[in-house]
Write a structure and sequence with these properties.
Elements (H helix, E strand, L loop, with lengths): L2 H9 L12 H5 L9 E5 L5 H8 L3 E6 L2 H13 L4 E5 L11 E7 L8 H11 E12 L20 H5 L8 E11 L3 E13 L1
Parallel strand pairs: 1-2, 1-4, 2-3, 4-5
Antiparallel strand pairs: 5-7, 6-7
Length: about 200
């Protein structure tokens, strides 16, 4: 199955799989971001982070493989009178064309073989004084039932970031947190949080 087929099957259900509240870690870092700056949301799904950031006055672009997820995002944006640019594409086919003040993502499922290319695209897209802020499921999430893939190759280790030059100077921390994100993410979870400044 393609990424679009996988995520369309998840997002075709009623409601919002991961709720409508933004990822709490990303929301807690908004004060770092340049006011009114350009923000890119990777693997944005149904749009909870994009909507939150657009409401804060940021110029938001959201990328996701799921046209159904992005349709839900666009519907909410219209209801909230917000403008959010959406791009429906699998990230492995995405070609960066712009620079952003901020790039964010929460619980992006990318196969370990495809990460080096994605990390390079992130660096290429981030302005020199910009921020990358993200939360990922760690391999230790396999011990928890709060969500996330059951394939270890879609989960992350701290070393995945530290060994790649793009994130050599980033803050990368694994920790246990409590998730409250719709039906999809509920309960104790093992996550990796990343903050990279320009």
């Amino acid at each position: 199955m393609s990424q679009q087929e996988i995520w369309n099957s998840k997002f075709s259900r009623d409601g919002y799989l991961y709720g409508t509240k933004p990822n709490s870690f990303i929301a807690s870092k908004v004060k770092l971001f340049k006011k009114g700056g350009k923000v890119l949301c990777l693997g944005e799904g149904e749009g909870r982070n994009a909507i939150f950031l657009a409401k804060k006055g940021f110029d938001v672009t959201a990328i996701d493989a799921s046209n159904i997820g992005l349709s839900k995002l666009e519907k909410r944006a219209r209801e909230e009178n917000l403008h959010i640019e959406t791009i429906c594409i699998d990230l492995k086919h995405w070609e960066p064309k712009e620079k952003y003040d901020v790039i964010i993502t929460s619980f992006l499922h990318v196969h370990e073989d495809e990460r080096p290319m994605l990390f390079e695209k992130i660096e290429e897209s981030l302005l020199s004084d910009g921020y990358f802020v993200a939360e990922f499921f760690s391999v230790n999430q396999l011990s928890y039932s709060s969500g996330g893939p059951k394939d270890e190759k879609l989960l992350y280790k701290v070393e995945d970031f530290k060994k790649h030059y793009v994130f050599s100077d980033a803050q990368v921390k694994e920790q246990i947190t409590i998730l409250d994100e719709g039906k999809g993410h509920q309960g104790e979870a093992s996550v990796i949080r990343v903050i990279k400044e320009g």
